[in-house]
DNA sequence: ATCCCTTTGTGAACCGATGCACAAAGTAGG
DNA sequence: CCTACTTTGTGCATCGGTTCACAAAGGGAT
Protein backbone atom coordinates (compact mmCIF):
# COMPACT_ATOMS: atom_id res chain seq x y z
CA UNK A 1 0.00 0.00 0.00
CA UNK A 2 2.14 2.82 -1.25
CA UNK A 3 0.16 5.98 -1.78
CA UNK A 4 -2.91 6.15 -3.99
CA UNK A 5 -5.78 3.73 -4.42
CA UNK A 6 -7.84 2.22 -1.67
CA UNK A 7 -6.36 -0.46 0.55
CA UNK A 8 -9.76 -2.06 1.02
CA UNK A 9 -12.10 -0.61 -1.55
CA UNK A 10 -15.76 -0.54 -0.67
CA UNK A 11 -17.38 -1.86 -3.81
CA UNK A 12 -16.72 -5.56 -4.19
CA UNK A 13 -17.69 -6.91 -7.63
CA UNK A 14 -20.96 -8.82 -7.59
CA UNK A 15 -19.29 -11.87 -9.12
CA UNK A 16 -16.83 -11.89 -6.25
CA UNK A 17 -19.56 -11.63 -3.63
CA UNK A 18 -21.25 -14.65 -5.16
CA UNK A 19 -18.08 -16.71 -4.75
CA UNK A 20 -17.11 -15.70 -1.22
CA UNK A 21 -19.60 -18.18 0.31
CA UNK A 22 -17.92 -20.91 -1.72
CA UNK A 23 -14.51 -20.03 -0.34
CA UNK A 24 -15.94 -19.80 3.13
CA UNK A 25 -17.40 -23.27 2.91
CA UNK A 26 -14.11 -24.72 1.69
CA UNK A 27 -12.24 -22.93 4.48
CA UNK A 28 -14.61 -24.25 7.15
CA UNK A 29 -13.92 -27.75 5.93
CA UNK A 30 -10.19 -27.14 6.14
CA UNK A 31 -10.40 -25.59 9.60
CA UNK A 32 -12.26 -28.69 10.79
CA UNK A 33 -9.52 -30.88 9.41
CA UNK A 34 -6.95 -28.85 11.32
CA UNK A 35 -5.34 -27.16 8.32
CA UNK A 36 -3.70 -23.90 9.46
CA UNK A 37 -2.65 -22.26 6.20
CA UNK A 38 -3.65 -22.75 2.58
CA UNK A 39 -2.29 -21.56 -0.75
CA UNK A 40 -4.49 -19.88 -3.34
CA UNK A 41 -3.90 -22.92 -5.54
CA UNK A 42 -5.29 -25.38 -3.00
CA UNK A 43 -8.18 -23.21 -1.90
CA UNK A 44 -9.12 -22.54 -5.50
CA UNK A 45 -9.19 -26.27 -6.23
CA UNK A 46 -11.37 -26.93 -3.19
CA UNK A 47 -13.79 -24.22 -4.26
CA UNK A 48 -13.79 -25.28 -7.90
CA UNK A 49 -12.38 -22.07 -9.37
CA UNK A 50 -9.10 -20.99 -10.92
CA UNK A 51 -6.42 -19.64 -8.61
CA UNK A 52 -5.92 -16.28 -10.31
CA UNK A 53 -9.60 -15.57 -9.88
CA UNK A 54 -9.47 -16.55 -6.24
CA UNK A 55 -6.51 -14.26 -5.56
CA UNK A 56 -8.18 -11.35 -7.31
CA UNK A 57 -11.38 -11.98 -5.36
CA UNK A 58 -9.56 -11.99 -2.03
CA UNK A 59 -7.55 -8.93 -2.99
CA UNK A 60 -10.80 -6.98 -2.97
CA UNK A 61 -11.12 -7.59 0.76
CA UNK A 62 -7.56 -6.66 1.59
CA UNK A 63 -4.06 -8.13 1.62
CA UNK A 64 -4.64 -11.04 3.90
CA UNK A 65 -2.13 -13.50 2.42
CA UNK A 66 1.57 -14.00 3.06
CA UNK A 67 3.75 -14.37 -0.03
CA UNK A 68 5.59 -17.63 -0.12
CA UNK A 69 3.19 -19.10 2.45
CA UNK A 70 -0.47 -18.62 1.64
CA UNK A 71 -3.47 -17.63 3.72
CA UNK A 72 -4.13 -18.29 7.40
CA UNK A 73 -7.32 -20.34 7.40
CA UNK A 74 -8.82 -19.04 10.66
CA UNK A 75 -8.04 -15.45 9.83
CA UNK A 76 -9.48 -15.70 6.33
CA UNK A 77 -12.65 -17.34 7.65
CA UNK A 78 -13.07 -14.39 9.96
CA UNK A 79 -12.43 -11.78 7.29
CA UNK A 80 -14.81 -13.32 4.76
CA UNK A 81 -17.47 -13.85 7.43
CA UNK A 82 -17.20 -10.25 8.45
CA UNK A 83 -17.38 -9.05 4.87
CA UNK A 84 -20.50 -11.14 4.19
CA UNK A 85 -22.14 -9.95 7.39
CA UNK A 86 -22.10 -13.36 9.05
CA UNK A 87 -20.66 -12.13 12.33
CA UNK A 88 -24.22 -11.28 13.20
CA UNK A 89 -27.15 -13.68 13.25
CA UNK A 90 -29.86 -12.90 10.70
CA UNK A 91 -33.52 -13.55 11.46
CA UNK A 92 -35.21 -15.25 8.50
CA UNK A 93 -38.95 -15.74 7.98
CA UNK A 94 -40.50 -18.36 5.72
CA UNK A 95 -43.80 -17.43 4.08
CA UNK A 96 -45.79 -20.33 2.64
CA UNK A 97 -45.47 -23.55 4.61
CA UNK A 98 -46.28 -26.17 2.00
CA UNK A 99 -44.07 -28.92 0.58
CA UNK A 100 -41.15 -26.64 0.02
CA UNK A 101 -41.57 -24.36 3.03
CA UNK A 102 -41.59 -27.39 5.34
CA UNK A 103 -38.46 -28.82 3.76
CA UNK A 104 -36.69 -25.51 4.20
CA UNK A 105 -37.83 -25.18 7.81
CA UNK A 106 -36.63 -28.67 8.64
CA UNK A 107 -33.35 -28.10 6.89
CA UNK A 108 -30.71 -27.90 9.59
CA UNK A 109 -27.92 -26.86 7.27
CA UNK A 110 -28.74 -23.23 6.74
CA UNK A 111 -29.30 -22.46 10.39
CA UNK A 112 -25.68 -23.45 10.82
CA UNK A 113 -23.91 -20.15 10.50
CA UNK A 114 -25.31 -16.67 10.55
CA UNK A 115 -29.00 -17.46 10.03
CA UNK A 116 -31.96 -18.75 12.00
CA UNK A 117 -35.62 -19.23 11.18
CA UNK A 118 -37.41 -16.68 13.35
CA UNK A 119 -40.96 -17.02 12.00
CA UNK A 120 -43.17 -18.94 9.58
CA UNK A 121 -46.41 -17.78 7.99
CA UNK A 122 -49.24 -19.37 6.04
CA UNK A 123 -52.75 -18.44 4.95
CA UNK A 124 -54.27 -21.92 5.32
CA UNK A 125 -56.13 -22.28 8.68
CA UNK A 126 -55.22 -26.00 8.70
CA UNK A 127 -51.55 -25.13 8.64
CA UNK A 128 -51.56 -22.12 10.96
CA UNK A 129 -50.85 -23.27 14.50
CA UNK A 130 -48.82 -26.30 13.42
CA UNK A 131 -45.44 -26.70 15.02
CA UNK A 132 -42.66 -27.29 12.51
CA UNK A 133 -39.04 -27.62 13.54
CA UNK A 134 -40.06 -26.39 16.97
CA UNK A 135 -41.65 -23.22 15.69
CA UNK A 136 -45.29 -22.21 15.53
CA UNK A 137 -46.77 -21.31 12.14
CA UNK A 138 -48.33 -17.84 12.32
CA UNK A 139 -51.25 -16.55 10.31
CA UNK A 140 -50.30 -14.34 7.39
CA UNK A 141 -52.40 -11.54 8.93
CA UNK A 142 -49.79 -11.27 11.68
CA UNK A 143 -47.02 -10.74 9.12
CA UNK A 144 -46.21 -7.11 9.82
CA UNK A 145 -46.42 -7.37 13.59
CA UNK A 146 -44.32 -10.53 13.89
CA UNK A 147 -41.69 -9.34 11.42
CA UNK A 148 -41.21 -6.17 13.44
CA UNK A 149 -41.28 -7.88 16.81
CA UNK A 150 -38.72 -10.54 15.91
CA UNK A 151 -36.46 -8.32 13.85
CA UNK A 152 -36.82 -10.34 10.64
CA UNK A 153 -34.66 -8.87 7.89
CA UNK A 154 -34.71 -11.64 5.28
CA UNK A 155 -37.84 -13.34 3.94
CA UNK A 156 -38.02 -16.62 2.04
CA UNK A 157 -41.05 -16.73 -0.25
CA UNK A 158 -42.46 -20.22 -0.77
CA UNK A 159 -46.09 -19.55 -1.63
CA UNK A 160 -47.81 -20.53 -4.88
CA UNK A 161 -46.94 -18.27 -7.79
CA UNK A 162 -50.37 -16.64 -7.76
CA UNK A 163 -49.90 -15.30 -4.23
CA UNK A 164 -46.23 -14.32 -4.48
CA UNK A 165 -46.51 -10.73 -5.68
CA UNK A 166 -49.19 -9.85 -3.15
CA UNK A 167 -47.23 -11.37 -0.28
CA UNK A 168 -44.08 -9.70 -1.58
CA UNK A 169 -45.76 -6.29 -1.48
CA UNK A 170 -46.79 -6.79 2.13
CA UNK A 171 -43.34 -7.99 3.11
CA UNK A 172 -41.75 -4.96 1.48
CA UNK A 173 -44.27 -2.65 3.10
CA UNK A 174 -43.29 -4.18 6.43
CA UNK A 175 -39.76 -2.92 5.87
CA UNK A 176 -37.98 -6.05 4.64
CA UNK A 177 -35.39 -5.35 1.93
CA UNK A 178 -34.03 -8.84 1.21
CA UNK A 179 -36.14 -11.58 -0.35
CA UNK A 180 -35.33 -15.07 -1.54
CA UNK A 181 -38.05 -16.08 -3.96
CA UNK A 182 -38.89 -19.70 -4.84
CA UNK A 183 -42.10 -18.92 -6.70
CA UNK A 184 -41.83 -18.92 -10.49
CA UNK A 185 -42.75 -15.28 -11.03
CA UNK A 186 -40.86 -12.08 -11.72
CA UNK A 187 -41.40 -10.02 -8.59
CA UNK A 188 -41.71 -6.30 -8.95
CA UNK A 189 -40.12 -4.40 -6.06
CA UNK A 190 -38.65 -0.96 -5.35
CA UNK A 191 -35.01 -0.53 -6.32
CA UNK A 192 -33.89 -0.56 -2.71
CA UNK A 193 -35.04 -4.16 -2.26
CA UNK A 194 -32.85 -7.13 -3.20
CA UNK A 195 -34.57 -10.15 -4.66
CA UNK A 196 -32.78 -13.37 -5.45
CA UNK A 197 -34.62 -16.22 -7.04
CA UNK A 198 -34.26 -19.96 -7.00
CA UNK A 199 -36.02 -21.51 -9.92
CA UNK A 200 -35.98 -25.26 -10.39
CA UNK A 201 -37.73 -25.26 -13.71
CA UNK A 202 -35.36 -22.74 -15.27
CA UNK A 203 -32.41 -24.85 -14.18
CA UNK A 204 -33.93 -27.95 -15.71
CA UNK A 205 -34.62 -26.15 -18.96
CA UNK A 206 -31.03 -24.97 -19.18
CA UNK A 207 -29.85 -28.53 -18.64
CA UNK A 208 -32.26 -29.75 -21.31
CA UNK A 209 -30.87 -27.25 -23.78
CA UNK A 210 -27.33 -28.51 -23.35
CA UNK A 211 -28.45 -32.13 -23.24
CA UNK A 212 -30.14 -31.68 -26.59
CA UNK A 213 -26.98 -30.15 -28.02
CA UNK A 214 -24.89 -33.06 -26.83
CA UNK A 215 -27.31 -35.60 -28.25
CA UNK A 216 -27.77 -34.04 -31.64
CA UNK A 217 -24.56 -32.04 -31.78
CA UNK A 218 -21.87 -33.73 -33.88
CA UNK A 219 -24.24 -35.35 -36.36
CA UNK A 220 -26.91 -32.71 -36.39
CA UNK A 221 -25.27 -30.40 -38.92
CA UNK A 222 -28.55 -30.51 -40.79
CA UNK A 223 -29.41 -26.99 -41.79
CA UNK A 224 -33.04 -26.08 -42.25
CA UNK A 225 -32.53 -24.42 -45.62
CA UNK B 1 -29.55 -12.48 -44.94
CA UNK B 2 -27.26 -11.15 -47.58
CA UNK B 3 -24.24 -13.30 -48.06
CA UNK B 4 -22.00 -14.36 -45.17
CA UNK B 5 -22.78 -15.27 -41.57
CA UNK B 6 -25.29 -17.81 -40.37
CA UNK B 7 -29.00 -16.98 -40.38
CA UNK B 8 -29.46 -19.01 -37.23
CA UNK B 9 -26.07 -19.43 -35.67
CA UNK B 10 -25.50 -22.50 -33.58
CA UNK B 11 -23.83 -21.14 -30.48
CA UNK B 12 -26.33 -19.23 -28.43
CA UNK B 13 -24.70 -17.19 -25.63
CA UNK B 14 -25.03 -18.81 -22.24
CA UNK B 15 -26.62 -15.67 -20.80
CA UNK B 16 -29.29 -15.87 -23.48
CA UNK B 17 -30.01 -19.54 -22.80
CA UNK B 18 -30.55 -18.71 -19.13
CA UNK B 19 -33.19 -16.13 -20.06
CA UNK B 20 -35.13 -18.10 -22.65
CA UNK B 21 -37.09 -20.00 -19.97
CA UNK B 22 -38.13 -16.65 -18.55
CA UNK B 23 -39.48 -15.49 -21.89
CA UNK B 24 -41.20 -18.81 -22.38
CA UNK B 25 -42.97 -18.54 -19.06
CA UNK B 26 -44.17 -15.02 -19.85
CA UNK B 27 -45.35 -16.16 -23.28
CA UNK B 28 -47.30 -19.09 -21.83
CA UNK B 29 -49.10 -16.68 -19.55
CA UNK B 30 -49.97 -14.48 -22.51
CA UNK B 31 -51.12 -17.39 -24.63
CA UNK B 32 -53.46 -18.43 -21.83
CA UNK B 33 -54.90 -14.94 -21.71
CA UNK B 34 -55.54 -15.10 -25.43
CA UNK B 35 -52.92 -12.58 -26.51
CA UNK B 36 -51.93 -13.28 -30.12
CA UNK B 37 -48.97 -10.98 -30.70
CA UNK B 38 -46.63 -9.12 -28.40
CA UNK B 39 -44.03 -6.39 -28.84
CA UNK B 40 -40.48 -6.75 -27.53
CA UNK B 41 -41.29 -3.93 -25.14
CA UNK B 42 -44.24 -5.72 -23.53
CA UNK B 43 -42.60 -9.12 -23.45
CA UNK B 44 -39.46 -7.63 -21.93
CA UNK B 45 -41.50 -5.97 -19.19
CA UNK B 46 -43.29 -9.23 -18.42
CA UNK B 47 -39.98 -11.07 -18.20
CA UNK B 48 -38.31 -8.35 -16.17
CA UNK B 49 -35.56 -7.47 -18.66
CA UNK B 50 -34.82 -4.58 -20.97
CA UNK B 51 -36.25 -4.70 -24.48
CA UNK B 52 -32.97 -4.33 -26.37
CA UNK B 53 -31.64 -7.36 -24.56
CA UNK B 54 -34.75 -9.34 -25.33
CA UNK B 55 -34.55 -8.51 -29.03
CA UNK B 56 -30.89 -9.45 -29.16
CA UNK B 57 -31.62 -12.70 -27.35
CA UNK B 58 -34.38 -13.63 -29.78
CA UNK B 59 -32.28 -12.63 -32.76
CA UNK B 60 -29.94 -15.51 -31.86
CA UNK B 61 -32.72 -17.96 -32.63
CA UNK B 62 -33.71 -16.38 -35.91
CA UNK B 63 -35.81 -13.53 -37.27
CA UNK B 64 -39.16 -14.47 -35.84
CA UNK B 65 -40.61 -11.01 -35.37
CA UNK B 66 -42.52 -8.74 -37.74
CA UNK B 67 -41.43 -5.13 -37.82
CA UNK B 68 -44.18 -2.75 -36.94
CA UNK B 69 -46.15 -5.58 -35.30
CA UNK B 70 -44.14 -7.69 -32.87
CA UNK B 71 -43.91 -11.43 -32.27
CA UNK B 72 -46.58 -14.05 -32.76
CA UNK B 73 -47.03 -15.56 -29.30
CA UNK B 74 -47.81 -19.14 -30.35
CA UNK B 75 -45.04 -19.25 -32.89
CA UNK B 76 -42.47 -17.83 -30.50
CA UNK B 77 -43.51 -20.33 -27.81
CA UNK B 78 -42.87 -23.09 -30.31
CA UNK B 79 -39.51 -21.74 -31.45
CA UNK B 80 -38.18 -21.22 -27.94
CA UNK B 81 -39.49 -24.60 -26.81
CA UNK B 82 -37.77 -26.27 -29.72
CA UNK B 83 -34.53 -24.44 -29.05
CA UNK B 84 -34.56 -25.45 -25.39
CA UNK B 85 -35.35 -29.04 -26.25
CA UNK B 86 -38.81 -29.00 -24.69
CA UNK B 87 -40.55 -30.53 -27.65
CA UNK B 88 -39.47 -33.84 -26.20
CA UNK B 89 -40.27 -35.08 -22.71
CA UNK B 90 -37.22 -35.54 -20.48
CA UNK B 91 -37.07 -38.32 -17.91
CA UNK B 92 -35.74 -36.99 -14.61
CA UNK B 93 -34.60 -39.06 -11.62
CA UNK B 94 -34.42 -37.80 -8.05
CA UNK B 95 -31.71 -39.29 -5.87
CA UNK B 96 -32.12 -38.81 -2.12
CA UNK B 97 -35.74 -38.80 -0.96
CA UNK B 98 -35.54 -36.79 2.25
CA UNK B 99 -37.18 -33.48 3.10
CA UNK B 100 -36.14 -31.84 -0.10
CA UNK B 101 -36.44 -34.84 -2.43
CA UNK B 102 -40.04 -35.37 -1.30
CA UNK B 103 -40.92 -31.73 -1.85
CA UNK B 104 -39.48 -31.90 -5.34
CA UNK B 105 -41.29 -35.14 -6.14
CA UNK B 106 -44.60 -33.71 -4.98
CA UNK B 107 -44.05 -30.50 -6.87
CA UNK B 108 -46.50 -30.49 -9.75
CA UNK B 109 -45.09 -27.42 -11.41
CA UNK B 110 -42.01 -28.83 -13.03
CA UNK B 111 -43.74 -31.83 -14.50
CA UNK B 112 -45.82 -29.31 -16.41
CA UNK B 113 -43.88 -28.95 -19.59
CA UNK B 114 -41.10 -31.08 -20.97
CA UNK B 115 -40.14 -33.03 -17.84
CA UNK B 116 -41.45 -35.92 -15.77
CA UNK B 117 -40.13 -37.74 -12.73
CA UNK B 118 -39.27 -41.21 -14.01
CA UNK B 119 -37.52 -42.65 -10.93
CA UNK B 120 -36.56 -41.96 -7.32
CA UNK B 121 -33.73 -43.52 -5.34
CA UNK B 122 -32.68 -43.67 -1.72
CA UNK B 123 -30.26 -45.67 0.39
CA UNK B 124 -32.41 -45.84 3.52
CA UNK B 125 -34.33 -49.17 3.74
CA UNK B 126 -37.16 -47.38 5.55
CA UNK B 127 -37.64 -45.08 2.58
CA UNK B 128 -37.11 -47.59 -0.24
CA UNK B 129 -40.45 -49.04 -1.28
CA UNK B 130 -42.43 -45.96 -0.24
CA UNK B 131 -44.79 -44.56 -2.80
CA UNK B 132 -44.39 -40.82 -3.32
CA UNK B 133 -46.39 -38.92 -5.86
CA UNK B 134 -47.51 -42.26 -7.27
CA UNK B 135 -44.00 -43.54 -7.82
CA UNK B 136 -42.09 -46.26 -6.02
CA UNK B 137 -38.78 -45.34 -4.36
CA UNK B 138 -36.05 -47.65 -5.67
CA UNK B 139 -32.95 -48.75 -3.83
CA UNK B 140 -29.82 -46.92 -4.82
CA UNK B 141 -28.26 -50.25 -5.83
CA UNK B 142 -30.66 -50.34 -8.75
CA UNK B 143 -29.47 -46.93 -9.97
CA UNK B 144 -27.69 -48.03 -13.12
CA UNK B 145 -30.31 -50.55 -14.22
CA UNK B 146 -33.30 -48.28 -13.66
CA UNK B 147 -31.65 -45.26 -15.26
CA UNK B 148 -30.97 -47.28 -18.39
CA UNK B 149 -34.35 -48.95 -18.47
CA UNK B 150 -36.35 -45.75 -18.08
CA UNK B 151 -34.15 -43.58 -20.27
CA UNK B 152 -33.32 -41.08 -17.52
CA UNK B 153 -31.15 -38.29 -18.88
CA UNK B 154 -31.29 -35.70 -16.09
CA UNK B 155 -30.62 -36.44 -12.42
CA UNK B 156 -31.55 -34.28 -9.46
CA UNK B 157 -29.19 -34.82 -6.53
CA UNK B 158 -30.81 -34.31 -3.12
CA UNK B 159 -28.66 -36.47 -0.85
CA UNK B 160 -26.69 -35.21 2.14
CA UNK B 161 -23.47 -33.44 1.16
CA UNK B 162 -21.33 -36.34 2.35
CA UNK B 163 -22.88 -38.76 -0.14
CA UNK B 164 -23.17 -36.40 -3.10
CA UNK B 165 -19.84 -36.96 -4.82
CA UNK B 166 -20.09 -40.74 -4.57
CA UNK B 167 -23.63 -40.76 -5.94
CA UNK B 168 -22.58 -38.31 -8.62
CA UNK B 169 -19.79 -40.63 -9.76
CA UNK B 170 -22.22 -43.51 -10.10
CA UNK B 171 -24.73 -41.39 -11.97
CA UNK B 172 -22.05 -40.23 -14.39
CA UNK B 173 -20.77 -43.78 -14.82
CA UNK B 174 -24.33 -44.77 -15.73
CA UNK B 175 -24.16 -42.38 -18.66
CA UNK B 176 -26.04 -39.36 -17.33
CA UNK B 177 -24.55 -36.06 -18.49
CA UNK B 178 -26.88 -33.51 -16.85
CA UNK B 179 -27.09 -33.05 -13.10
CA UNK B 180 -28.94 -30.59 -10.91
CA UNK B 181 -27.21 -30.54 -7.55
CA UNK B 182 -28.86 -29.38 -4.31
CA UNK B 183 -26.10 -30.63 -2.01
CA UNK B 184 -23.70 -27.97 -0.76
CA UNK B 185 -20.56 -29.43 -2.35
CA UNK B 186 -18.47 -28.72 -5.42
CA UNK B 187 -18.96 -31.80 -7.56
CA UNK B 188 -16.09 -32.99 -9.64
CA UNK B 189 -17.18 -34.39 -13.01
CA UNK B 190 -15.74 -34.94 -16.50
CA UNK B 191 -15.90 -31.96 -18.82
CA UNK B 192 -18.67 -33.55 -20.88
CA UNK B 193 -21.07 -33.47 -17.94
CA UNK B 194 -23.15 -30.40 -17.10
CA UNK B 195 -23.75 -29.64 -13.46
CA UNK B 196 -25.96 -26.85 -12.25
CA UNK B 197 -26.30 -26.14 -8.58
CA UNK B 198 -29.00 -24.70 -6.38
CA UNK B 199 -27.58 -23.51 -3.12
CA UNK B 200 -29.87 -21.94 -0.56
CA UNK B 201 -27.14 -21.00 1.84
CA UNK B 202 -25.11 -19.17 -0.79
CA UNK B 203 -28.17 -17.17 -1.78
CA UNK B 204 -28.82 -16.20 1.83
CA UNK B 205 -25.22 -15.14 2.31
CA UNK B 206 -25.36 -12.92 -0.76
CA UNK B 207 -28.52 -11.31 0.59
CA UNK B 208 -26.85 -10.83 3.98
CA UNK B 209 -23.93 -9.08 2.33
CA UNK B 210 -26.15 -6.52 0.66
CA UNK B 211 -28.37 -6.19 3.71
CA UNK B 212 -25.31 -5.32 5.78
CA UNK B 213 -24.29 -2.71 3.24
CA UNK B 214 -27.71 -1.13 3.30
CA UNK B 215 -27.78 -1.02 7.09
CA UNK B 216 -24.33 0.39 7.66
CA UNK B 217 -23.82 2.00 4.27
CA UNK B 218 -24.29 5.78 4.37
CA UNK B 219 -23.12 6.27 7.94
CA UNK B 220 -20.53 3.56 8.08
CA UNK B 221 -17.65 5.50 6.52
CA UNK B 222 -15.58 4.43 9.49
CA UNK B 223 -12.23 3.25 8.21
CA UNK B 224 -10.32 0.70 10.24
CA UNK B 225 -7.07 2.58 10.18
C1' DA C 1 23.78 -11.34 5.28
C1' DT C 2 22.84 -13.44 0.98
C1' DC C 3 20.58 -16.54 -2.07
C1' DC C 4 16.91 -19.49 -3.55
C1' DC C 5 12.32 -20.90 -3.54
C1' DT C 6 7.42 -20.24 -3.10
C1' DT C 7 3.39 -17.68 -3.53
C1' DT C 8 0.92 -13.41 -3.44
C1' DG C 9 -1.13 -9.28 -5.59
C1' DT C 10 -1.99 -6.90 -9.79
C1' DG C 11 -1.26 -4.60 -14.56
C1' DA C 12 -2.83 -5.49 -18.89
C1' DA C 13 -4.92 -8.06 -22.63
C1' DC C 14 -8.89 -10.38 -23.65
C1' DC C 15 -13.68 -11.94 -23.79
C1' DG C 16 -18.51 -12.01 -23.39
C1' DA C 17 -22.55 -9.34 -22.23
C1' DT C 18 -25.17 -5.00 -22.07
C1' DG C 19 -27.53 -1.06 -23.78
C1' DC C 20 -27.86 2.78 -26.94
C1' DA C 21 -29.46 4.40 -31.02
C1' DC C 22 -30.82 4.00 -35.69
C1' DA C 23 -31.49 2.16 -40.39
C1' DA C 24 -34.35 -1.20 -42.44
C1' DA C 25 -38.65 -3.39 -42.80
C1' DG C 26 -43.01 -3.82 -42.19
C1' DT C 27 -48.25 -2.05 -41.43
C1' DA C 28 -52.03 1.11 -42.10
C1' DG C 29 -54.44 4.70 -44.12
C1' DG C 30 -55.50 7.91 -47.56
C1' DC D 1 -48.60 4.41 -54.87
C1' DC D 2 -47.03 7.28 -51.40
C1' DT D 3 -46.62 8.93 -46.66
C1' DA D 4 -46.67 8.38 -41.69
C1' DC D 5 -46.02 5.46 -38.02
C1' DT D 6 -44.44 1.37 -35.47
C1' DT D 7 -41.23 -1.98 -34.15
C1' DT D 8 -37.60 -5.13 -35.25
C1' DG D 9 -32.74 -6.44 -35.82
C1' DT D 10 -28.04 -5.02 -35.22
C1' DG D 11 -23.52 -2.11 -35.38
C1' DC D 12 -21.01 -0.07 -32.04
C1' DA D 13 -19.32 1.72 -27.74
C1' DT D 14 -18.92 0.33 -23.13
C1' DC D 15 -18.57 -2.35 -19.08
C1' DG D 16 -17.63 -5.96 -15.90
C1' DG D 17 -15.30 -10.10 -15.37
C1' DT D 18 -11.65 -13.55 -16.47
C1' DT D 19 -7.11 -15.04 -17.36
C1' DC D 20 -2.27 -14.58 -18.13
C1' DA D 21 2.03 -13.66 -16.62
C1' DC D 22 5.31 -11.48 -13.72
C1' DA D 23 7.48 -8.27 -10.38
C1' DA D 24 7.55 -7.90 -5.55
C1' DA D 25 7.42 -9.92 -1.06
C1' DG D 26 8.31 -13.04 2.32
C1' DG D 27 10.40 -17.51 4.45
C1' DG D 28 14.07 -20.59 5.20
C1' DA D 29 18.59 -22.41 4.51
C1' DT D 30 23.40 -21.85 4.46
N1 LIG E 1 -41.96 -27.99 -4.01
C1 LIG E 1 -40.93 -27.80 -4.81
O1 LIG E 1 -40.08 -28.66 -4.94
C2 LIG E 1 -40.78 -26.55 -5.55
C3 LIG E 1 -39.76 -26.46 -6.44
C4 LIG E 1 -39.59 -25.29 -7.14
C5 LIG E 1 -40.44 -24.25 -6.93
N2 LIG E 1 -41.46 -24.36 -6.09
C6 LIG E 1 -42.32 -23.21 -5.87
O2 LIG E 1 -42.35 -22.92 -4.50
C7 LIG E 1 -43.64 -22.51 -4.13
C8 LIG E 1 -44.17 -23.42 -3.06
O3 LIG E 1 -44.22 -24.74 -3.54
P1 LIG E 1 -44.91 -25.88 -2.68
O4 LIG E 1 -44.70 -27.15 -3.41
O5 LIG E 1 -44.43 -25.81 -1.28
O6 LIG E 1 -46.45 -25.46 -2.76
P2 LIG E 1 -47.59 -25.84 -1.71
O7 LIG E 1 -48.89 -25.60 -2.40
O8 LIG E 1 -47.32 -27.16 -1.12
O9 LIG E 1 -47.42 -24.76 -0.55
C9 LIG E 1 -47.78 -23.44 -0.68
C10 LIG E 1 -48.19 -22.92 0.70
O10 LIG E 1 -48.41 -21.53 0.64
C11 LIG E 1 -49.59 -21.22 1.37
N3 LIG E 1 -50.16 -19.98 0.89
C12 LIG E 1 -50.96 -19.78 -0.17
N4 LIG E 1 -51.29 -18.48 -0.29
C13 LIG E 1 -50.67 -17.84 0.72
C14 LIG E 1 -50.64 -16.49 1.14
N5 LIG E 1 -51.27 -15.53 0.47
N6 LIG E 1 -49.92 -16.18 2.23
C15 LIG E 1 -49.26 -17.14 2.90
N7 LIG E 1 -49.26 -18.45 2.55
C16 LIG E 1 -49.97 -18.78 1.47
C17 LIG E 1 -50.48 -22.39 1.16
O11 LIG E 1 -51.43 -22.48 2.22
C18 LIG E 1 -49.49 -23.55 1.18
O12 LIG E 1 -49.31 -24.04 2.49
C19 LIG E 1 -44.48 -22.54 -5.39
O13 LIG E 1 -44.49 -21.25 -5.95
C20 LIG E 1 -43.74 -23.46 -6.28
O14 LIG E 1 -43.91 -23.15 -7.63
C21 LIG E 1 -41.64 -25.49 -5.36
N1 LIG F 1 -34.12 -29.35 2.87
C1 LIG F 1 -33.77 -28.20 2.35
O1 LIG F 1 -34.52 -27.22 2.40
C2 LIG F 1 -32.47 -28.00 1.72
C3 LIG F 1 -32.13 -26.74 1.30
C4 LIG F 1 -30.92 -26.55 0.68
C5 LIG F 1 -30.09 -27.61 0.52
N2 LIG F 1 -30.42 -28.81 0.92
C6 LIG F 1 -29.52 -29.93 0.67
O2 LIG F 1 -30.22 -30.94 -0.02
C7 LIG F 1 -29.78 -32.19 0.43
C8 LIG F 1 -30.95 -32.97 0.96
O3 LIG F 1 -31.53 -32.26 2.05
P1 LIG F 1 -32.67 -32.91 2.91
O4 LIG F 1 -33.11 -31.89 3.87
O5 LIG F 1 -33.68 -33.54 2.03
O6 LIG F 1 -31.85 -34.05 3.67
P2 LIG F 1 -32.45 -35.40 4.29
O7 LIG F 1 -31.45 -35.93 5.23
O8 LIG F 1 -33.84 -35.17 4.74
O9 LIG F 1 -32.55 -36.38 3.05
C9 LIG F 1 -31.44 -36.97 2.45
C10 LIG F 1 -31.89 -38.32 1.89
O10 LIG F 1 -30.81 -38.88 1.14
C11 LIG F 1 -30.74 -40.26 1.45
N3 LIG F 1 -29.38 -40.76 1.20
C12 LIG F 1 -28.29 -40.68 2.01
N4 LIG F 1 -27.23 -41.26 1.41
C13 LIG F 1 -27.65 -41.70 0.22
C14 LIG F 1 -27.03 -42.37 -0.85
N5 LIG F 1 -25.72 -42.68 -0.81
N6 LIG F 1 -27.75 -42.69 -1.92
C15 LIG F 1 -29.05 -42.36 -1.97
N7 LIG F 1 -29.70 -41.71 -1.02
C16 LIG F 1 -29.02 -41.39 0.08
C17 LIG F 1 -31.14 -40.36 2.89
O11 LIG F 1 -31.59 -41.67 3.18
C18 LIG F 1 -32.24 -39.32 2.97
O12 LIG F 1 -33.50 -39.90 2.68
C19 LIG F 1 -28.71 -31.94 1.45
O13 LIG F 1 -27.45 -31.99 0.83
C20 LIG F 1 -28.99 -30.55 1.92
O14 LIG F 1 -27.80 -29.91 2.34
C21 LIG F 1 -31.60 -29.04 1.52
TrEMBL record, chains A, B:
Assembly mode: Homodimer.
Pfam family, one: CoA_binding
Record-annotated CoA-binding domain positions: 85-186
NCBIfam families recorded: PRK05472.1-3 (NF003989), PRK05472.2-1 (NF003992), PRK05472.2-2 (NF003993), PRK05472.2-3 (NF003994), PRK05472.2-4 (NF003995), PRK05472.2-5 (NF003996)
Residues that coordinate or bind NAD(+): 96-101
Annotated region of DNA binding: 22-61
Protein name (record): Redox-sensing transcriptional repressor Rex
Keyword annotations: Cytoplasm, DNA-binding, NAD, Repressor, Transcription, Transcription regulation
Similarity annotation: Belongs to the transcriptional regulatory Rex family.
Subcellular locations according to the entry: Cytoplasm
Keyword Oxidoreductase recorded: no
Domain of life: Bacteria
Amino acid sequence: MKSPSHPRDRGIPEATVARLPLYLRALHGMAERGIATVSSEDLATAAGVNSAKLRKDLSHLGSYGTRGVGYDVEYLVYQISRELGLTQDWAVAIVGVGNLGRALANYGGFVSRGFHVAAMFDADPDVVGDTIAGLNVEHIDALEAVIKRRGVSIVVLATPAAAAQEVCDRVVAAGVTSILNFAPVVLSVPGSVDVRKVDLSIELQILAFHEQRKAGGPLMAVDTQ
